[in-house]
Amino acid sequence: MHVTLGKPRESRTNAIRGTEExxxxxxxxxxxxxxxxxxxxxxxxxxxxxxKWGAEPAYREKEFGIWxxxxxxxxxxxxxxxxxxxLALGMAKGDYVAxxxxxxxxxxxxxxxxxxxxxIPVPLYQDAVAEEMAYVLDHCxxxxxxxxxxxxxxxxxxxxxxxxxxxxxxxxxPRGLRKYDHTRxxxxxxxxxEGRAAHERxxxxxxxxxxxxTYDDTCVMLxxxxxxxxxxxxxxxxxxxxxxxxxxxxFDHLRHSDEVLAYLPMAWVGDFIFSIGQxxxxxxxxxxxxxxxxxxxxxREIGPSYYFAPPRIFETQLTNVMIRMEDAGRIKxxxxxxxxxxxxxxxxxxxxxxxxxxxxxxxYALGDLFVYGPLKNTLGFTRVRVGYTAGEAIGPEIxxxxxxxxxxxxxxxxxxxxxxxxxxxxxxxxxSDTVGVPSPGVELRIAENGEVFYRSPGTFVxxxxxxxxxxxTKDAEGWVATGDAGFIEPESGHLRIxxxxxxxxxxxxxxxxxxxxxxxxLKFYPNILEAVVFGADREMCTAFINIDLTAVGNWAxxxxxxxxxxxxLAGHPKVLATVQAHVEAVNKSVAEDEMLSGxxxxxxxxxxxxxxxxxxxxxxxxxxxxRIIEEKFADLIEALYGGKDQVYTETEVTYExxxxxxxxxxxxxxxxxxxxxxxxxxxxx
Length: 685
Description:
Blueprint: E1 3-5, H1 10-17, H2 42-52, E2 57-63, E3 66-71, H3 72-89, E4 96-100, H4 105-116, E5 120-124, H5 130-140, E6 144-147, H6 150-159, E7 168-171, E8 185-187, H7 188-197, H8 199-212, E9 218-223, E10 233-237, H9 238-251, E11 259-261, H10 269-282, E12 285-288, H11 295-302, E13 306-308, H12 311-327, H13 330-351, H14 358-379, E14 386-389, H15 396-404, E15 409-415, E16 420-424, E17 437-438, E18 443-446, E19 451-455, E20 462-463, H16 467-473, E21 480-488, E22 495-500, E23 505-506, E24 512-513, H17 515-522, E25 528-534, E26 541-547, H18 549-558, H19 566-570, H20 573-591, E27 601-606, H21 626-632, H22 634-642, E28 646-654, E29 660-671, E30 674-675, E31 681-682
Parallel strand pairs: 2-12, 4-5, 4-6, 6-7, 7-8, 11-12, 13-14, 14-15, 26-27
Antiparallel strand pairs: 1-18, 2-3, 9-10, 10-20, 15-16, 16-17, 18-19, 19-21, 21-22, 23-24, 25-26, 27-29, 28-29, 30-31
Helix pairs in contact: 2-3, 2-10, 3-4, 3-7, 3-8, 5-6, 9-10, 12-18, 13-14, 13-15
């Protein structure tokens, strides 16, 4: 039996909210063909914004400790000069332009300039090693590369022996590049200057190319993270990006006065939608931090009103808060614990506008004065009006912590192939155990095997040069297989995601196995950075744990425990005992869910190294590559299930400078107590 859900639910949502606005009449997807006013491309939106909000800020960037700002008119001039310079270099319609670097206005302008001449931007992950970049550069056939600095230029030069399509490399930061061969190496400033000097020769051509862009032309190509194989190039059209940006912006009432901090990888679809799609549709300002090291300071200075972060960021921020509270004085810690207990009780209800007693409201107001307000200011969340998290499931305790402070944090569910948005949580219907209702224009369907399918205006065009994968993912009617298992709640219409469909399985006794459910509960604890749970087709579940070096290191220092490395700290008996207590607490929580009670962890070990994208164990978006981990650490898994108390292992690692080495360690394996479904504690095996 198929369960389908789409936008007709909107009238019920209005009734639940108690609003008087009538439900909009839904249009079939086939009729949603025009963004209106001829706004069929990002360059067209830029021209509109320069006319409408010309003197208002479009971009800010912090450099050398000082914020610099560009208005929409100045942005349009910068983009135009770059586009003319690209024409002078011979950039043709349909060319692929790789963009590599951190979030900087000039790199965003390069993407829009490429679109203006009919080329296709392809952002790459800045922390990718040269070998990973080589695959993407060769696969898309990039003729041009726009690189931020010497580090990125060096990676491109390193792979040019195997990647022969690259004709020109453009760079933003000239430091260290003076003595390079500049035959095919150009500064962006020189390209821009050439464009301004040659404007009379190319202006007519540029106008013609911008006018020729259609709604179904390619807007951007973004590569998937490649959790199970080589990354795939996801082709997204102007229609995909603009319709999705329009619908999602209207859903959350985003406006041109909003502020967003652009700090997530430019190669990730979320950054493209937030920092280009929605920014250009609504006209809000995109702020670029100075560096990853200053991001939290820059976040506090900007105070964004619209904010997105993956669960890992929220987990890290919460860990830092808890570490500071451990070091706080007795009175300060008492205030924090007392008012946070009250916030967890009434904060989310107050945020959602639900009835709360007068005394509870007064006590919450006191808490806001002494605890919540200062804490939000420290985190940079004082002005957040709409906050989202996605990419991975967030632990309910972490999610509820932020909402209890009065931060309107919500969950969305999406993927690159959907131009991000599949479901969103409406205000007043925010819960930690669902990912919301279908985004405007999106239809959902649950297949017989529990896999979630969708179709929407944001549905991708194709996988580049991969017709077979396109056909296996998207059918002739436009339904896309997400690869995730879930179900739609009949009463609320909210979607609940259980796990990746390929990861959900059965244990040997037939009980349901959903590793991500348990892993997210483990990662709520500040001491645990990452967890990987095993158990499919097995008699019991086991786990690998990565400790958080910052949190555990701080704890070790307070307790006068000397250590010289991650490996030494991870193997300390007191650390093992602490993590065991966390695992057993999670087992107790998991036992309360009858459907998933079989996923309790019977045995675990703390890995001797952090899982790392450079070692292939994580994707660049920090997702676990389970298959690679299972193959790489097969000896450790065998020891977990073989009843051993210790196991010796050797693991190859990649250092920051690219050198390879080996880590040798003897790891302790711990048994944990499990809890019967009825709640009775059972002895450790």
